[in-house]
Amino acid sequence: MKNETPDCRTCSVRDVTPFEHCNRDQVLEVQFAKSCNFYKKGQFIFSENSLPIGLFCISSGHLKLVKYGSGGKEQILRIAKPGDFVGFRSLITRRRYNASAIAVSDAAVCLLPRKDFQHLLNTNHEFSAEIMQRVCELAEKTENKLTDIAYKPARGRIADALLLLSNADTELCQKDIQLSREELAGFTGTVKETAIRILSEFKRNNLIAIKKRKIEILDIGGLEQMSNQFD
Amino acid sequence: MKNETPDCRTCSVRDVTPFEHCNRDQVLEVQFAKSCNFYKKGQFIFSENSLPIGLFCISSGHLKLVKYGSGGKEQILRIAKPGDFVGFRSLITRRRYNASAIAVSDAAVCLLPRKDFQHLLNTNHEFSAEIMQRVCELAEKTENKLTDIAYKPARGRIADALLLLSNADTELCQKDIQLSREELAGFTGTVKETAIRILSEFKRNNLIAIKKRKIEILDIGGLEQMSNQFD
DNA sequence: CGGCTGATTGAGCTATGTCAAGGGCAGTGG
DNA sequence: CCACTGCCCTTGACATAGCTCAATCAGCCG
What we know:
The structure is a homodimer.
Chain A: H1 24-33, E1 35-39, E2 44-46, E3 54-60, E4 63-68, E5 74-80, E6 85-86, H2 89-93, E7 100-103, E8 107-113, H3 114-123, H4 125-151, H5 154-167, H6 181-188, H7 192-204, E9 208-211, E10 214-217, H8 220-228
Antiparallel strand pairs in A: 1-8, 2-7, 3-6, 3-8, 4-5, 4-7, 9-10
Helix pairs in contact in A: 3-4, 5-6, 5-8, 6-7
The first copy, chain A, binds a DNA duplex through helix 7.
């Protein structure tokens, strides 16, 4: 990956962000208002309970959005991919960050300061409608995940996670987001050991293969069955 | 409760809804576009997977928003109170309802048709900003609840629920929303029997009293301690 | 080679779910 | 007014998924 600071005017992810609704002048404004940072795997982009400073737009790499639950266990709320916006919701609620954002791979992330974001929100209706739409979609996903964690057994949740993480975002992602076993556990609301045991079981049943810690999906249908056998 | 159809112009909950940002003419438009229905406890306002038809504004009573998880268990995502809007998010995402809304007490609910809602959203910036704010706040709450369900033990979640349901909305709610034990379980992501056992335990420890199935909180501090002892 | 980090496996425990049997209260109908 | 019925609530006994703790293993890097 080249460490070139992205330019909004030519940025390849712009088309999949709400910025697609910006006209030439607005893109220019964003380009000059924003700054860009490069994060190594594991670095924090922002932390739960600190004050929001602006909108983060992921140019490359992936972030995990996490909260820490009982016993300091890390709950991964979602994985954000290139083109996703993070950290702006707290600007709208005018509260501190509700979660932390951490790079799960090396990532380039641009920061549009609060005022510029809010200006756009107030003046560009298409943009704000797009933001609204995304917030709503995300809220639905979170509700679905909540219900799964509440009542679906871990086996099904792990199967879901594997399917989601592998095929989800074929457009911009390199296919496999490399999460550690512990992260996979945090993503599915369980603990490392349980996640590992279930993976081993999937391997025994030829649903997946594991090469050098990396998980490869062999039987999508089988995993889907795993996911649904508890409905 | 009188079964009088509410009039937006004089409706007592208007001030706590996003309609507060509507001018006199807009309120009038809403008043003439809307219809009102009265629901008995247990009746559906709308159902998961059906097509959204408009914005529901709760005039009186409470609704539960539920999804059905593995084994048909009912997960209560949240309780909506007078002044809350429900069912509009699916208009924005242009999908089917992600959850069902059911009256937990007798309720009066007004329906503003899709087009009128969208017109307001497009033309009244303050209104749409208020909607955005609420969606974002709700999303945060859902994320918090997700993390709790994932890693906080049932005891803590029940304590949280009791605190939330009792004091939450002192403004407009009569203090106690009467949920059945099964509903309390659905709200906290557990099953009826577990909820009951934990309640009995709380009673033994004088954290709560139970009179005729109704739960009365005796020791707020004690419950808060229950909630936090697992961090 | 030694030390490190993450993955894996085992053994045991516990919280929580399941199944089954009362118990109490409210409403209904005689 | 009382018996009947049905709906919750409650409790007990039991099963088990998933958590904890601890030991070992497999790459990887200096």
